[in-house]
Automatic annotation (TrEMBL):
PANTHER family: IMPORT ATP-BINDING PROTEIN, TRANSPORTER, PUTATIVE-RELATED. It comes from Halorhodospira halophila (strain DSM 244 / SL1). The keyword Nucleotide-binding applies. Residues 39-262 form the ABC transporter domain. This is ABC transporter related protein.
Length: 262
């Protein structure tokens, strides 16, 4: 079964683009380009070895995500949400199926091309955060810019602006181990956004945050979608996070199902 169409990604894209009320929820005017698919999964399967066999986690997923859309993925623990994010983020490859990103099939890229693709186009917020402990907060934020060879004055200014927008102004020179869990999570949020990614992949991005701070972070995602046309895919157990998304899909038993908007 598909999140958007049981059979065909193209039809699924048209179906999704017809969802006018979803656009008005974020205040976007939803032009043609914004509504075009950014990501297109067709027949994606993924399993892991277990007891001499293979345990299938994702069982033939079809999914279309439009440019500028925010999509929440919900589902029980172990249902494959992180696995789905890892596949779309080209962290690993599927056993079968294709994953299109802006017309390019990620499953055909070699390791070097996948690394470059991730650096240029994606912002990750991992559950484990993956902050570099030997770098300060600001240095952690500058890392994606450095890796992309675009660390300049404007990048430094934007890094500071993002820290302010997540409420961490004044903590630029602090090391991650001296921050609270929620503060560390906000550093990871800002770091994922600093290079202006086309797609944000966020795994439980507000899990360590209080309600008000979580709303600030979700508001920031939506602002960046409006300001920069960013697309967001968010794995979550939180009903608040799901409610802030344009669209919600649920993973269960290896399959995706569209969930009615709240
Ligand atoms: N690299 C791996 N090797 C073996 N099994 C794996 C690997 N990655 C994930 N799995 C298995 O795939 C299943 C799905 O894991 P995944 O982390 O995607 O679930 P999830 O929905 O994100 O869970 P949670 O909500 O608890 O974070 C789990 O049973 C997990 O053990």
């Amino acid at each position: 079964m598909s999140a958007t169409s049981p059979t065909d990604g193209t039809a699924a894209g048209r179906h999704s683009a017809d969802r006018q009320p979803l656009r008005s929820r974020t205040g976007r005017d939803g032009g043609e380009a914004e509504d075009s698919p950014l990501i297109r999964l067709l027949g994606v399967r993924k399993g892991y070895p277990e007891g001499g066999g293979v345990r299938v986690v994702l069982d033939g997923l079809d999914l279309v995500i439009r440019r500028g859309e925010s999509l929440a993925v919900v589902g029980p623990s172990g249902s494959g949400k992180s696995t789905l994010l890892n596949l779309i983020g080209a962290m690993e490859g599927p056993d079968a199926g294709t994953i299109g990103f802006g017309g390019e099939d990620l499953t055909t890229l070699d390791e070097t091309a996948r690394t470059l693709f991730r650096r240029r186009h994606l912002g990750f917020i991992f559950q484990q955060l993956n902050l570099v402990p030997t770098l300060t907060v600001l240095e952690n934020l500058l890392l994606p810019l450095e890796l992309n060879g675009v660390l300049n004055r404007e990048g430094r200014r934007y890094a500071r602006e993002l820290l302010e927008r997540v409420g961490l102004q004044g903590r630029e020179d602090t090391f991650p181990e001296l921050l609270s869990g929620g503060e560390r999570q906000r550093v990871a949020v800002a770091r994922a956004l600093v290079h202006g990614p086309d797609l944000l992949l966020a795994d439980e991005p507000t899990g360590s945050l209080d309600g008000a701070t979580a709303q600030t972070v979700l508001g920031l995602f939506n602002e960046l979608r409006r300001e920069r046309g960013m697309t967001a895919l968010i794995a979550t157990h939180s009903t608040d996070v799901a409610a802030a998304a344009d669209r919600v899909v649920a993973l269960q038993g290896g399959r995706l199902q569209e969930v009615a908007a709240a």
